[in-house]
Amino acid sequence: AQKITQTQPGMFVQEKEAVTLDCTYDTSDPSYGLFWYKQPSSGEMIFLIYQGSYDQQNATEGRYSLNFQKARKSANLVISASQLGDSAMYFCAMSLSGSARQLTFGSGTQLTVLP
Amino acid sequence: DAGITQSPRYKITETGRQVTLMCHQTWSHSYMFWYRQDLGHGLRLIYYSAAADITDKGEVPDGYVVSRSKTENFPLTLESATRSQTSVYFCASRGTNTDTQYFGPGTRLTVL
């Protein structure tokens, strides 16, 4: 069965510092995608970053980077230079095998950025 | 405006009533999805659709019905609402050549 695990229910980081949010996954499918979404207190789900299982390089999008370690089955999100607006819930997700490639989500990490 | 919209944004209903949540996207995406998010949890897939008139069950389909007569619309119906269906419902869509799903703003449903 495919599964996403986020072991940090809550994290704190000082403004302007970097923070790593952990995500591990379990799948026997060789083809999959890994995602991070941000959910601020307003409730919307905002796509941040994507990593394909065959991608050789770690994905980056501005201050976000995905530390993809395939052998360890981990896909940690790194946020550099944290800002107060980064305070939110962060979800790791994986696309499943099959034509629909539907997503399975972890339970999320609540990040609080301290001034 | 282009994108994915949901209506209503908030709904309060009573046990046993039928409720329909609407989802509309303007990207002509083939794939559409319905998820529910319960307090303190991630999202769980209810139903998905690969194209008009093609739908399939997800992880938690019981008590829900979907249809997709047009590519841009994917309504979700609770045939007889129960308190356990109190949740936030998200619709999402993606194109054919990408895995990335884009989400609507969500509908907060309360069943009394």
Write the layout of secondary structure elements.
The complex is a heterodimer of chains A (115) and B (112).
Chain A lengths: L2 E3 L4 E5 L4 E3 L2 E3 L6 E7 L6 E7 L7 E2 L2 E6 L4 E6 L8 E8 L7 E3 L3 E6 L1
Parallel strand pairs in A: 2-12
Antiparallel strand pairs in A: 1-4, 3-9, 5-6, 5-10, 7-8, 8-9, 10-11, 10-12
Chain B lengths: L3 E4 L2 E4 L5 E7 L5 E7 L5 E9 L2 E4 L6 E3 L9 E3 L8 E8 L7 E2 L3 E5 L1
Parallel strand pairs in B: 2-11
Antiparallel strand pairs in B: 1-3, 3-8, 4-5, 4-9, 5-6, 7-8, 9-10, 9-11
Features:
heterodimer, A: 115 residues, mainly beta, 6-stranded mixed sheet, 4-stranded antiparallel sheet, B: 112 residues, 7-stranded mixed sheet, 11 strands, 50% strand, globular
Shape of chain B: globular
**Helical stretch count of chain B?**
0
**Whole-number mean pLDDT of chain B:** 94
Q: Let me know the number of strands of chain B.
A: 11
Bin the strand percentage of chain A.
over 45%
Give the beta-strand count of chain A: 12
Task: Note poorly predicted spans of chain B.
Answer: none
Number of helices of chain A: 0
Roughly what percent helix of chain A?
A: under 10%
Question: What is the H-and-E element order of chain B?
Answer: EEEEEEEEEEE
Q: Per DSSP, what share of the residues of chain B sits in E-state strands of 2 or more residues?
A: over 45%
Structural class of chain B: mainly beta
State the order of secondary-structure elements of chain A, H for helix, E for strand.
EEEEEEEEEEEE
User: Helix/strand/pairing class of chain A, anyone?
Assistant: mainly beta
| C-alpha-based Rg of chain B, rounded | 13 Å
Distance between the termini of chain B: 34 Å
